[in-house]
Amino acid sequence: MKKRLFSLVLAAVMVLSLVACGKKADNTPVVNVEDTSKTPETNNTETPSTGDETTAPVADADVEYVRGDDEEAYEAALGGFGALNAAGNSAEKPDDRFVLFAQAEANLLGSFVMIPTTTQGGAYSISRVAPRTVPYVQWGNDDDRVKGLVISDEFITPAEREELLAQWAAAVKGEGTYDPIAYLTGKGHTIQKDYTLTFQTAPVTLDWLNTSSQADTEITVNTVEGLVEYNNLGQMTPALAESWEVSDDETVYTFHIRKDAKWYTSEGAEYAPVTAHDFEAGFHHMLDTKAGLEWLIDGVVKGGTDYYANGGSWDEVGYKAVDDYTLQVTLEKPVSYFMTMLTYSCFLPMCESFYKAHGGVFGVDEYAAASADTNTYTFGNAADVSSQVYCGPFLIQKLQKESEIYLVANKNYHRKDTVVLNSIKWVYDNGENPDALYNDTVSGTYAGIALGLPALLEKAKADGNFDKYSFVTDTTSTSYFGGLNLNRGTFALESGACATPKDEKAKVDTNTALNNLNFRKAMLYGFDKSTWNAVTRGEDLKNANLRNMYTSPNFVQLSADTTDAAGHTFPAGTFYGEMVQYYCDQAGLGINVADGVNGWYNVDLARQSLEAAKAELGDSVNWPIQIDVVYYSGSDSSTAQGNAYKKVMEDALGAENVVINLVEATTSEDFYACGYRAANGEAGNFDMFYGSGWGPDYGDPSTYLNTFLGEGAGYMTKVIGLF
Prior knowledge:
Layout: E1 5-7, E2 30-31, H1 70-90, H2 94-110, E3 114-119, E4 124-127, E5 151-152, H3 158-172, H4 180-186, E6 191-192, E7 194-199, H5 214-220, E8 228-230, E9 236-238, E10 241-246, E11 252-257, E12 262-264, E13 270-273, H6 276-289, H7 304-310, E14 319-323, E15 326-330, H8 338-341, H9 352-357, H10 364-371, E16 394-400, E17 404-409, E18 423-428, H11 434-443, E19 448-450, H12 454-462, H13 465-469, E20 471-472, E21 479-484, H14 504-514, H15 517-525, H16 529-537, E22 562-563, E23 569-570, H17 576-586, H18 603-617, E24 625-632, H19 636-653, E25 658-665, H20 668-674, E26 688-694, H21 702-705
Parallel strand pairs: 7-18, 24-25
Antiparallel strand pairs: 1-2, 1-26, 3-21, 4-19, 4-20, 5-6, 8-9, 10-11, 11-15, 12-13, 14-15, 16-17, 17-18, 21-26, 22-23
């Protein structure tokens, strides 16, 4: 998965690399995140409710909360989605896949276990960064590659930005070139070569094949290359593969690796040539680590799943170096989107000889044993930048948690003519002092800032910067969402922090209610996202970045007329979101999936659903149901969001029915531990969590929907408390 699980909290004022670059203006550390498999637990007295039965009342003193079975909870809530999604994954033709996935997505939304909230962008910003100067693509890691970033010494005006975007659009059509440096210098700007931005979550590893967290890969992707990459016009171009061929049956891809690429130490010393063997070693290592990337290749690369999941032989895996500079990839079947997958980190190389020299071994079990001994296994240690070697445009020279991350240009990089920047520096910022961040941006320390917080917007209006320089950033394909915890297993962190105020009976009542479909409907129909979003976006743009489906609505479209199993035909050119809307309407969900509208909020439906839930639950629960929401008290934006969520929910459903418990996290580390960095569903310390999102890895809707696969295969099921 790509990306990447993204963290939403604290994002309103973050200075991020694409805040002014257009397409994918990241507004939060992405955590490609989540990991983990868990040992299934036996079910006890709690059985997930389908909403059709009631249980006898239980005396409070006799109650003990016991976590139920993940698979049973999943099947009750998402069994229908799983079957439809499997059908989509089995279809080979892209158009057939898109229609089937649209049905699956409508079913996912209709389960009411999650609610899409926002996307990135759609915020007032001021910036010195020229638009469209990084790779322009909706998926993969390339949007974090900033080697071509063009930064002025002055804020770019809206008029200048419009002219630049017009030049870019013409270049995309082949009607000219896009040269923002020439344009800006012609307007009297001076181009800056050093880029400074902020971070809130430091990388936990320098091993880009052992993480799916964007907080890790947004740094490392600037130090390593893959086979191909996208340019700033959205075109796929050769990177370490200078050419490739595809067999007639579209199952064998042969890549020819360039011979002038080298691995370098953090100090710039040449270590070894980059070879096809490094790609094979990287893929082998990625499967061995099982860190959340491996499931992406399920059903794609021949033998890959059997190797990491079933103990199959590496010799049978279709990812092999034929010789030093030829890599051959054999697929299970033709995969229409395979080339788009290559820009994600699971297909990156690693230096095989360096890996072995730092304790690295191959084999799932062998790796697990070796990596447990940190005295001998020292590869990719985030505390030591010399524990990795790099073949990309930058070298990591400093990485200090809660301080600074510093990269310098690799003077020996084989495509150094494509590099504009001399250095990249991330400075730690915990979001507690947005005024200082704004002042530092105005003074030139940072390239740009989102004016999401109302206080910042007013500040920019007062000093004239809003009128002179503000623009609204593009929205992106990243989708944030809120999840309802169906099977909670943690009620306080190990330290005792962020403890629930609920007693045992209240824990049971919440679990019982959240496993009732009508109660979940009430919760999600009652969520006024516009009001909640306004506290960090301002009233003017409270709807600008709202998202109402998981996959970006315009992510893909049909190439030909396509008819579903029920006989309904969608014409060629139909966007994916239009198909999802059709199936939502067919199911009577009452959801508008378009971007930019408060598409789920309906107080009448919320209250009707609540009454239905109360009738179904009967005396099995005590009202009000308590819902724990963790917030970070050191962040104005997180605190404001928490208070807004409490108000809109209790206003919609009545505090006599639902009470939102705002659980304070006094440090960002504790906040992230409760949800964003929780290892698995059982470790999630929340009842409702709206702090994560997903950015797509490749150009097919499965890149989103497969994150909700069952049996521990889905990366984002932990946000609904499962697996």
